[in-house]
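Hey, quick one: can you model this chain's 3D structure?
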Amino acid sequence: MALGLRERTRRARHNSLVELILIVAAALLLALAIQAFLVKPYRIPSESMEPTLDVGQRVLVNRMKYRFTDPDKGDIVVFHPPEGADANTCGVPHAPNQACPRPTPDRSSVNFIKRVVATPGDLLSIRGGHAVVNGKIQNEGFIRPCEGGQECDFPSPIRVPPGYFFMMGDNRGESDDSRFWGPVPKKWIIGQAFFTYWPPRRIGIF
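Sure thing. Here's the predicted structure for all 206 residues.
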């Protein structure tokens, strides 16, 4: 028996609703997969990366890049700091004129964003908030320098351990970073920040 017009219309609406639900579900799963494995959005929570990145600015983080390569000096990365980073806890005793050479053994659950200033094997000291790597002061025109104080100068050098990366915020006088809680192992690095999408006036690759 042929279906009546009303029944055909009802079934068509039902099929359209099911199709819409499946499309939405597939889109959500795809978005979650992209965020989990490829690209993750991140909101800048503090002043530590000014003037490069402002509080509230939003960036995209490439989660895949460091599965195939190591971070380079100058990369801006999102990572898990060591446990105790919120209290600037270093993992080992060290001289007061020396940056923290080792983190605590466990990672924190929070995410930080900083710039890589030294890589495995580098000899690092800090002068006026500037990284001095293997005896050469780095050209860091993008930073907001220190205005003086203990956090600006660590003249006694440390050697960055194999597999570790030393992080500093661009706002050198207002950043809690590897100077105080040590370098970060590669396995704690989430990915490289590469694109800013908010606010609109800041959209672009950096």
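One thing worth noting: The helical segments are 5-37, 178-181.
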